[in-house]
Write a structure and sequence with these properties.
Layout: H1 6-80, H2 82-101
Length: about 100
């Protein structure tokens, strides 16, 4: 038979309180470790994303610059040979009209 004395209950409550405090300290320590690990991994991820973003921006600028240079070259060539391009466009239009207009 167990005795249910106030002193036995206090002793049990003290043990439970101490165990809860130990558990809380351990969980706080683990939480700090996990937070530190996540911060380090997130930092690496963030740096990688920033690097990729900078590289893609450089690539976009390079593509835009090359497209503008090509457009200027083509523009100069077309302006130098206007009648050839107008004739070519007309020929292409006639050929396309012929192919679309004929019956099978």
């Amino acid at each position: 038979m167990t005795t249910n004395t106030p002193q036995a209950n206090v002793f049990s409550i003290d043990k439970i309180t101490a165990a809860l405090e130990t558990l809380e300290e351990a969980s706080q320590t683990k939480a700090d470790e996990i937070k530190s690990l996540v911060d380090r991994k997130f930092s690496k991820f963030k740096k990688t994303i920033q690097k990729v973003g900078a590289e893609s921006q450089d690539m976009a600028e390079s593509i835009t610059r090359r497209a503008n240079e090509t457009a200027e070259i083509v523009d100069g060539h077309v302006k130098g040979h206007v009648y050839g391009y107008v004739g070519g466009a007309a020929l292409f239009g006639l050929l396309l009209g012929y192919l679309m207009g004929r019956k099978n």
